[in-house]
Design brief:
6 helices; mainly alpha; globular; 180 residues
Amino acid sequence: PPPSSLSTDARESRAILEDLRRSGLVREGVKSGAHLHVDARDLIRRGGDATALINAINMHERFEPLLRNLFNPVRGSGLFNKDRAESTTNRFARSLALDHPELLRELNRLPEGQRTKANIEAIFQRHTAAEMRAHGINELSASSWKQMWKYRSLNLINILNINEALPARKGTIEFRMMDL
Protein backbone atom coordinates (compact mmCIF):
# COMPACT_ATOMS: atom_id res chain seq x y z
CA PRO A 1 0.00 0.00 0.00
CA PRO A 2 1.10 3.58 -0.53
CA PRO A 3 2.76 5.13 2.55
CA SER A 4 -0.21 7.45 3.16
CA SER A 5 -2.47 4.45 3.73
CA LEU A 6 -0.19 2.78 6.31
CA SER A 7 -1.65 2.78 9.80
CA THR A 8 0.30 4.13 12.74
CA ASP A 9 -2.28 2.84 15.22
CA ALA A 10 -0.49 0.79 17.90
CA ARG A 11 -3.64 -1.28 18.49
CA GLU A 12 -3.58 -2.44 14.88
CA SER A 13 0.09 -3.42 15.20
CA ARG A 14 -0.64 -5.41 18.37
CA ALA A 15 -3.56 -7.15 16.63
CA ILE A 16 -1.30 -8.10 13.71
CA LEU A 17 1.33 -9.49 16.10
CA GLU A 18 -1.34 -11.47 17.95
CA ASP A 19 -2.71 -12.89 14.66
CA LEU A 20 0.83 -13.84 13.66
CA ARG A 21 1.41 -15.57 17.01
CA ARG A 22 -1.81 -17.57 16.68
CA SER A 23 -1.12 -18.51 13.06
CA GLY A 24 1.63 -20.96 13.96
CA LEU A 25 3.97 -19.41 11.38
CA VAL A 26 6.29 -18.24 14.17
CA ARG A 27 7.83 -20.90 16.38
CA GLU A 28 10.01 -20.68 19.44
CA GLY A 29 13.42 -22.19 19.87
CA VAL A 30 17.13 -21.81 19.42
CA LYS A 31 18.00 -20.95 15.83
CA SER A 32 14.58 -19.48 15.16
CA GLY A 33 14.66 -16.07 13.62
CA ALA A 34 14.45 -13.96 10.52
CA HIS A 35 17.25 -13.04 8.14
CA LEU A 36 16.93 -10.31 5.55
CA HIS A 37 19.40 -10.41 2.63
CA VAL A 38 19.85 -7.22 0.61
CA ASP A 39 21.78 -6.95 -2.65
CA ALA A 40 24.79 -4.80 -1.76
CA ARG A 41 26.87 -5.07 -4.92
CA ASP A 42 26.19 -1.43 -5.80
CA LEU A 43 27.78 -0.37 -2.49
CA ILE A 44 31.17 -1.11 -4.04
CA ARG A 45 31.84 1.02 -7.14
CA ARG A 46 33.69 -0.13 -10.26
CA GLY A 47 36.93 1.53 -9.22
CA GLY A 48 36.74 -0.33 -5.91
CA ASP A 49 35.46 2.59 -3.83
CA ALA A 50 33.46 1.11 -0.93
CA THR A 51 32.52 4.33 0.86
CA ALA A 52 28.82 3.44 0.49
CA LEU A 53 29.44 0.07 2.19
CA ILE A 54 31.22 1.81 5.09
CA ASN A 55 28.28 4.22 5.30
CA ALA A 56 25.84 1.28 5.43
CA ILE A 57 27.88 -0.35 8.21
CA ASN A 58 27.95 2.92 10.17
CA MET A 59 24.25 3.53 9.68
CA HIS A 60 23.41 0.03 10.87
CA GLU A 61 25.66 0.27 13.92
CA ARG A 62 24.31 3.71 14.81
CA PHE A 63 20.65 2.67 14.57
CA GLU A 64 21.00 -0.94 15.76
CA PRO A 65 20.39 -0.13 19.46
CA LEU A 66 17.28 1.86 18.56
CA LEU A 67 15.96 -0.90 16.30
CA ARG A 68 16.76 -3.55 18.91
CA ASN A 69 14.69 -1.62 21.46
CA LEU A 70 11.89 -1.12 18.94
CA PHE A 71 11.68 -4.78 17.81
CA ASN A 72 12.71 -6.25 21.17
CA PRO A 73 14.11 -9.45 19.64
CA VAL A 74 14.75 -12.06 22.32
CA ARG A 75 15.05 -15.83 22.26
CA GLY A 76 11.83 -17.84 22.34
CA SER A 77 9.56 -15.30 20.63
CA GLY A 78 10.41 -12.71 23.23
CA LEU A 79 7.31 -10.64 22.62
CA PHE A 80 5.38 -13.49 24.17
CA ASN A 81 7.90 -15.01 26.61
CA LYS A 82 9.72 -12.14 28.28
CA ASP A 83 9.90 -13.97 31.60
CA ARG A 84 12.33 -16.64 30.34
CA ALA A 85 15.92 -16.10 31.48
CA GLU A 86 17.41 -17.47 28.24
CA SER A 87 15.34 -14.98 26.25
CA THR A 88 17.93 -12.27 26.73
CA THR A 89 20.94 -14.23 25.44
CA ASN A 90 22.16 -12.87 22.12
CA ARG A 91 23.85 -15.78 20.37
CA PHE A 92 23.57 -15.12 16.65
CA ALA A 93 23.18 -11.37 16.08
CA ARG A 94 25.79 -9.41 17.98
CA SER A 95 26.53 -5.82 17.00
CA LEU A 96 30.01 -4.99 15.74
CA ALA A 97 30.00 -2.01 18.10
CA LEU A 98 29.60 -4.38 21.03
CA ASP A 99 32.75 -6.41 20.37
CA HIS A 100 34.75 -4.37 17.85
CA PRO A 101 34.45 -0.61 18.43
CA GLU A 102 38.07 -0.12 17.29
CA LEU A 103 37.27 -1.85 13.98
CA LEU A 104 34.53 0.71 13.37
CA ARG A 105 36.92 3.56 14.24
CA GLU A 106 39.48 2.16 11.77
CA LEU A 107 36.87 2.03 9.00
CA ASN A 108 35.96 5.66 9.67
CA ARG A 109 39.59 6.77 9.67
CA LEU A 110 40.17 5.45 6.15
CA PRO A 111 40.91 8.49 4.00
CA GLU A 112 39.00 9.20 0.81
CA GLY A 113 40.53 7.18 -2.01
CA GLN A 114 41.48 4.35 0.38
CA ARG A 115 37.96 3.23 1.27
CA THR A 116 38.27 0.11 -0.85
CA LYS A 117 36.90 -3.38 -0.40
CA ALA A 118 40.46 -4.70 0.02
CA ASN A 119 41.23 -2.20 2.80
CA ILE A 120 37.96 -2.97 4.58
CA GLU A 121 38.76 -6.68 4.39
CA ALA A 122 42.26 -6.02 5.78
CA ILE A 123 40.76 -4.19 8.77
CA PHE A 124 38.43 -7.10 9.49
CA GLN A 125 41.37 -9.54 9.17
CA ARG A 126 43.31 -7.56 11.80
CA HIS A 127 40.42 -8.15 14.21
CA THR A 128 40.04 -11.88 13.49
CA ALA A 129 41.66 -13.00 16.78
CA ALA A 130 39.24 -10.84 18.78
CA GLU A 131 36.32 -12.20 16.75
CA MET A 132 37.43 -15.75 17.47
CA ARG A 133 37.53 -15.00 21.21
CA ALA A 134 34.12 -13.27 21.13
CA HIS A 135 32.50 -16.37 19.63
CA GLY A 136 34.61 -19.06 21.30
CA ILE A 137 35.99 -20.28 17.97
CA ASN A 138 38.52 -23.08 18.19
CA GLU A 139 41.53 -22.25 16.00
CA LEU A 140 42.16 -25.96 15.43
CA SER A 141 38.61 -26.78 14.36
CA ALA A 142 37.96 -25.77 10.76
CA SER A 143 34.23 -26.34 11.19
CA SER A 144 34.02 -23.72 13.93
CA TRP A 145 35.59 -21.14 11.61
CA LYS A 146 32.24 -20.84 9.82
CA GLN A 147 31.02 -18.80 12.79
CA MET A 148 33.63 -16.08 12.28
CA TRP A 149 32.05 -12.74 11.33
CA LYS A 150 28.78 -14.52 10.47
CA TYR A 151 26.90 -14.14 13.74
CA ARG A 152 26.64 -10.38 13.58
CA SER A 153 23.54 -8.22 13.54
CA LEU A 154 24.86 -7.06 10.16
CA ASN A 155 26.50 -10.05 8.46
CA LEU A 156 29.02 -8.97 5.83
CA ILE A 157 30.58 -12.32 4.85
CA ASN A 158 28.53 -12.54 1.66
CA ILE A 159 30.11 -9.35 0.27
CA LEU A 160 33.51 -9.22 2.00
CA ASN A 161 36.13 -11.98 1.97
CA ILE A 162 36.60 -12.03 5.74
CA ASN A 163 35.88 -15.69 6.48
CA GLU A 164 38.07 -18.29 4.74
CA ALA A 165 35.51 -21.03 5.43
CA LEU A 166 32.70 -19.09 3.72
CA PRO A 167 33.95 -17.11 0.69
CA ALA A 168 31.91 -14.07 -0.33
CA ARG A 169 29.81 -15.11 -3.33
CA LYS A 170 26.35 -13.60 -3.04
CA GLY A 171 27.10 -9.88 -3.00
CA THR A 172 24.58 -9.34 -0.21
CA ILE A 173 24.52 -7.99 3.30
CA GLU A 174 22.38 -9.88 5.77
CA PHE A 175 20.41 -8.29 8.58
CA ARG A 176 20.27 -10.87 11.40
CA MET A 177 18.94 -8.81 14.30
CA MET A 178 15.92 -11.05 14.68
CA ASP A 179 18.12 -14.17 14.94
CA LEU A 180 19.20 -14.55 18.54
